[in-house]
Protein backbone atom coordinates (compact mmCIF):
# COMPACT_ATOMS: atom_id res chain seq x y z
CA UNK A 1 0.00 0.00 0.00
CA UNK A 2 1.26 3.47 -0.90
CA UNK A 3 0.37 6.96 0.29
CA UNK A 4 0.67 8.21 -3.30
CA UNK A 5 -1.75 7.67 -6.19
CA UNK A 6 -1.01 8.55 -9.82
CA UNK A 7 -4.16 9.20 -11.86
CA UNK A 8 -3.74 8.63 -15.61
CA UNK A 9 -6.73 9.33 -17.90
CA UNK A 10 -6.72 7.38 -21.16
CA UNK A 11 -8.45 7.34 -24.49
CA UNK A 12 -6.85 5.18 -27.20
CA UNK A 13 -3.43 4.83 -25.55
CA UNK A 14 -2.65 1.20 -26.41
CA UNK A 15 0.81 2.17 -27.71
CA UNK A 16 1.80 3.78 -24.42
CA UNK A 17 -0.20 2.34 -21.56
CA UNK A 18 1.79 -0.78 -20.72
CA UNK A 19 5.10 1.06 -20.97
CA UNK A 20 4.00 3.94 -18.72
CA UNK A 21 2.55 1.57 -16.11
CA UNK A 22 5.70 -0.55 -15.98
CA UNK A 23 7.87 2.55 -15.77
CA UNK A 24 5.94 4.03 -12.82
CA UNK A 25 6.09 0.72 -10.95
CA UNK A 26 9.85 0.51 -11.58
CA UNK A 27 10.58 3.74 -9.68
CA UNK A 28 12.46 3.62 -6.39
CA UNK A 29 9.44 5.09 -4.60
CA UNK A 30 6.26 2.99 -4.70
CA UNK A 31 3.30 4.72 -6.33
CA UNK A 32 -0.10 3.21 -6.93
CA UNK A 33 -1.79 3.92 -10.28
CA UNK A 34 -5.41 4.61 -11.18
CA UNK A 35 -6.28 4.47 -14.88
CA UNK A 36 -9.47 6.29 -15.89
CA UNK A 37 -10.38 4.95 -19.32
CA UNK A 38 -13.11 6.62 -21.36
CA UNK A 39 -14.24 3.60 -23.37
CA UNK A 40 -11.15 3.40 -25.58
CA UNK A 41 -12.12 1.41 -28.68
CA UNK A 42 -8.49 0.40 -29.24
CA UNK A 43 -8.43 -1.94 -26.23
CA UNK A 44 -6.48 0.21 -23.78
CA UNK A 45 -8.58 -1.02 -20.84
CA UNK A 46 -8.02 -4.66 -21.82
CA UNK A 47 -4.27 -4.13 -21.59
CA UNK A 48 -4.70 -2.60 -18.13
CA UNK A 49 -6.83 -5.52 -16.97
CA UNK A 50 -4.10 -7.98 -17.97
CA UNK A 51 -1.50 -5.95 -16.12
CA UNK A 52 -3.68 -5.93 -12.99
CA UNK A 53 -2.91 -9.63 -12.62
CA UNK A 54 0.76 -8.66 -12.28
CA UNK A 55 0.37 -5.44 -10.31
CA UNK A 56 -2.12 -5.42 -7.38
CA UNK A 57 -1.56 -1.65 -6.97
CA UNK A 58 -2.91 -0.98 -10.47
CA UNK A 59 -6.53 0.19 -10.44
CA UNK A 60 -8.93 0.76 -13.33
CA UNK A 61 -12.10 2.79 -13.63
CA UNK A 62 -13.94 2.48 -16.95
CA UNK A 63 -16.38 5.09 -18.19
CA UNK A 64 -18.70 5.04 -21.19
CA UNK A 65 -17.76 7.47 -23.92
CA UNK A 66 -15.20 10.25 -24.14
CA UNK A 67 -16.32 12.51 -21.30
CA UNK A 68 -13.37 14.87 -21.09
CA UNK A 69 -10.07 15.26 -19.27
CA UNK A 70 -11.46 17.33 -16.42
CA UNK A 71 -14.27 14.94 -15.58
CA UNK A 72 -11.81 12.04 -15.67
CA UNK A 73 -9.61 13.71 -13.07
CA UNK A 74 -12.59 14.68 -10.92
CA UNK A 75 -13.69 11.03 -11.02
CA UNK A 76 -10.19 10.01 -9.97
CA UNK A 77 -9.98 12.61 -7.20
CA UNK A 78 -13.24 11.39 -5.68
CA UNK A 79 -12.05 7.79 -5.97
CA UNK A 80 -8.86 8.71 -4.10
CA UNK A 81 -10.64 10.74 -1.41
CA UNK A 82 -12.85 7.74 -0.65
CA UNK A 83 -9.67 5.86 0.34
CA UNK A 84 -7.93 7.50 3.31
CA UNK A 85 -4.49 6.02 2.67
CA UNK A 86 -3.71 8.47 -0.14
CA UNK A 87 -1.96 11.62 1.07
CA UNK A 88 -0.54 12.64 -2.33
CA UNK A 89 -2.59 12.49 -5.51
CA UNK A 90 -1.06 13.06 -8.95
CA UNK A 91 -2.17 14.00 -12.44
CA UNK A 92 -0.07 12.55 -15.26
CA UNK A 93 -0.45 11.88 -19.00
CA UNK A 94 -0.12 8.39 -20.44
CA UNK A 95 2.07 9.37 -23.39
CA UNK A 96 5.47 10.00 -21.67
CA UNK A 97 5.24 13.76 -22.20
CA UNK A 98 5.57 13.76 -18.40
CA UNK A 99 8.63 11.84 -17.21
CA UNK A 100 7.68 9.30 -14.50
CA UNK A 101 10.95 10.02 -12.68
CA UNK A 102 9.63 13.50 -11.93
CA UNK A 103 6.81 12.03 -9.82
CA UNK A 104 9.32 11.69 -6.98
CA UNK A 105 10.38 15.33 -7.31
CA UNK A 106 6.77 16.56 -7.24
CA UNK A 107 6.03 14.41 -4.21
CA UNK A 108 9.13 15.72 -2.42
CA UNK A 109 7.97 19.30 -3.03
CA UNK A 110 4.69 18.53 -1.27
CA UNK A 111 6.39 16.61 1.53
CA UNK A 112 8.55 19.71 2.07
CA UNK A 113 5.67 22.15 2.43
CA UNK A 114 3.85 22.71 -0.85
CA UNK A 115 0.14 22.00 -1.06
CA UNK A 116 0.26 21.69 -4.84
CA UNK A 117 3.39 20.98 -6.89
CA UNK A 118 3.30 21.73 -10.63
CA UNK A 119 5.66 20.16 -13.15
CA UNK A 120 6.52 23.41 -14.93
CA UNK A 121 7.79 23.76 -18.50
CA UNK A 122 8.44 27.49 -18.16
CA UNK A 123 9.84 28.18 -14.70
CA UNK A 124 13.42 27.98 -16.05
CA UNK A 125 13.07 29.23 -19.61
CA UNK A 126 11.21 27.03 -22.10
CA UNK A 127 11.83 23.31 -21.56
CA UNK A 128 9.84 21.59 -24.31
CA UNK A 129 11.13 18.88 -26.67
CA UNK A 130 9.68 17.88 -30.06
CA UNK A 131 6.89 20.45 -30.17
CA UNK A 132 6.54 22.60 -33.30
CA UNK A 133 7.28 26.25 -32.64
CA UNK A 134 3.62 27.16 -33.19
CA UNK A 135 2.57 24.86 -30.35
CA UNK A 136 5.30 26.17 -28.05
CA UNK A 137 4.26 29.75 -28.67
CA UNK A 138 0.56 28.96 -28.20
CA UNK A 139 1.24 27.27 -24.86
CA UNK A 140 3.69 29.90 -23.62
CA UNK A 141 1.49 32.87 -24.50
CA UNK A 142 -1.56 31.07 -23.12
CA UNK A 143 0.15 31.05 -19.73
CA UNK A 144 0.96 34.75 -20.10
CA UNK A 145 -2.69 35.42 -20.94
CA UNK A 146 -3.84 33.48 -17.86
CA UNK A 147 -1.49 35.47 -15.61
CA UNK A 148 -2.69 38.76 -17.10
CA UNK A 149 -6.40 37.96 -16.59
CA UNK A 150 -6.28 36.11 -13.27
CA UNK A 151 -3.26 37.78 -11.64
CA UNK A 152 -1.95 34.40 -10.46
CA UNK A 153 1.83 34.10 -10.34
CA UNK A 154 2.24 30.76 -12.10
CA UNK A 155 4.53 30.51 -15.11
CA UNK A 156 2.99 27.31 -16.51
CA UNK A 157 -0.71 27.88 -15.93
CA UNK A 158 -1.86 25.14 -18.33
CA UNK A 159 0.44 22.41 -16.97
CA UNK A 160 -1.18 19.02 -16.46
CA UNK A 161 1.54 17.29 -14.42
CA UNK A 162 0.78 17.92 -10.76
CA UNK A 163 0.82 16.59 -7.22
CA UNK A 164 -1.94 17.59 -4.81
CA UNK A 165 -1.92 17.01 -1.10
CA UNK A 166 -5.10 15.37 0.08
CA UNK A 167 -6.29 18.46 1.96
CA UNK A 168 -6.42 20.49 -1.25
CA UNK A 169 -8.75 18.07 -3.03
CA UNK A 170 -10.82 17.62 0.14
CA UNK A 171 -11.28 21.41 0.39
CA UNK A 172 -12.04 22.32 -3.22
CA UNK A 173 -15.73 21.66 -4.04
CA UNK A 174 -15.01 19.37 -6.97
CA UNK A 175 -18.60 19.38 -8.20
CA UNK A 176 -18.26 23.12 -8.85
CA UNK A 177 -15.27 22.78 -11.18
CA UNK A 178 -16.79 23.78 -14.50
CA UNK A 179 -14.32 23.05 -17.25
CA UNK A 180 -13.41 19.75 -18.89
CA UNK A 181 -10.51 20.51 -21.26
CA UNK A 182 -7.28 22.38 -20.64
CA UNK A 183 -9.24 25.11 -18.89
CA UNK A 184 -9.71 22.52 -16.15
CA UNK A 185 -5.98 22.68 -15.41
CA UNK A 186 -6.15 26.46 -15.09
CA UNK A 187 -9.27 26.36 -12.94
CA UNK A 188 -7.78 23.89 -10.46
CA UNK A 189 -4.66 26.02 -9.96
CA UNK A 190 -6.66 29.22 -9.69
CA UNK A 191 -9.06 27.68 -7.17
CA UNK A 192 -6.27 26.22 -5.03
CA UNK A 193 -4.65 29.65 -4.83
CA UNK A 194 -7.95 31.36 -4.01
CA UNK A 195 -8.31 28.96 -1.07
CA UNK A 196 -4.90 30.07 0.16
CA UNK A 197 -2.95 26.91 -0.61
CA UNK A 198 0.75 27.03 -1.35
CA UNK A 199 1.40 26.24 -5.01
CA UNK A 200 4.99 25.73 -6.20
CA UNK A 201 6.48 25.03 -9.61
CA UNK A 202 9.06 22.30 -10.10
CA UNK A 203 11.06 22.55 -13.34
CA UNK A 204 10.61 19.63 -15.74
CA UNK A 205 11.42 18.86 -19.35
CA UNK A 206 8.25 18.22 -21.36
CA UNK A 207 8.63 15.83 -24.30
CA UNK A 208 5.87 15.55 -26.88
CA UNK A 209 4.38 12.11 -27.46
CA UNK A 210 6.11 9.84 -29.97
CA UNK A 211 3.25 7.32 -30.18
CA UNK A 212 -0.52 7.70 -30.24
CA UNK A 213 -2.52 10.79 -31.19
CA UNK A 214 -2.74 14.15 -29.41
CA UNK A 215 -6.14 15.06 -27.94
CA UNK A 216 -5.67 18.83 -28.41
CA UNK A 217 -8.37 20.52 -30.50
CA UNK A 218 -9.60 23.98 -31.42
CA UNK A 219 -12.65 23.47 -29.19
CA UNK A 220 -10.43 22.72 -26.18
CA UNK A 221 -8.29 25.80 -26.83
CA UNK A 222 -11.39 28.00 -27.23
CA UNK A 223 -12.80 26.72 -23.94
CA UNK A 224 -9.57 27.65 -22.20
CA UNK A 225 -9.40 31.12 -23.79
CA UNK A 226 -12.96 32.12 -22.93
CA UNK A 227 -13.08 30.11 -19.70
CA UNK A 228 -10.34 32.17 -18.07
CA UNK A 229 -12.47 35.31 -18.28
CA UNK A 230 -15.56 33.50 -17.04
CA UNK A 231 -13.60 31.99 -14.17
CA UNK A 232 -12.18 35.35 -13.08
CA UNK A 233 -15.56 37.08 -13.16
CA UNK A 234 -17.23 34.23 -11.26
CA UNK A 235 -14.59 34.44 -8.54
CA UNK A 236 -15.76 37.96 -7.65
CA UNK A 237 -19.06 36.50 -6.42
CA UNK A 238 -17.73 33.41 -4.67
CA UNK A 239 -16.42 32.83 -1.15
CA UNK A 240 -13.31 30.72 -0.64
CA UNK A 241 -13.54 29.50 2.93
CA UNK A 242 -11.31 26.70 4.24
CA UNK A 243 -12.97 26.50 7.66
TrEMBL record:
Enzyme class: transferase
GO CC terms in record: membrane
Entry annotated with the keyword Glycosyltransferase: yes
Domain Glycosyltransferase 2-like: start-end pairs: 6-170
Top-level taxon: Bacteria
A single BP term in Gene Ontology: glycolipid biosynthetic process
EC number: 2.4.1.83
GO MF annotation terms: dolichyl-phosphate beta-D-mannosyltransferase activity
Family per similarity comment: Belongs to the glycosyltransferase 2 family.
Protein name in UniProt: Glycosyl transferase family 2
Organism: Pedobacter heparinus (strain ATCC 13125 / DSM 2366 / CIP 104194 / JCM 7457 / NBRC 12017 / NCIMB 9290 / NRRL B-14731 / HIM 762-3)
Amino acid sequence: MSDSLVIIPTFNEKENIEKIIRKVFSLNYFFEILIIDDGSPDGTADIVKKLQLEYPALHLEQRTGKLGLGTAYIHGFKWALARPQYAYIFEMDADFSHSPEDLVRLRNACVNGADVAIGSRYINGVNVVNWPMSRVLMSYFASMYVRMITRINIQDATAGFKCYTRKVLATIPLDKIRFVGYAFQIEMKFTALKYGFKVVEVPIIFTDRTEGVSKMSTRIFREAFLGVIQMKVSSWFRKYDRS
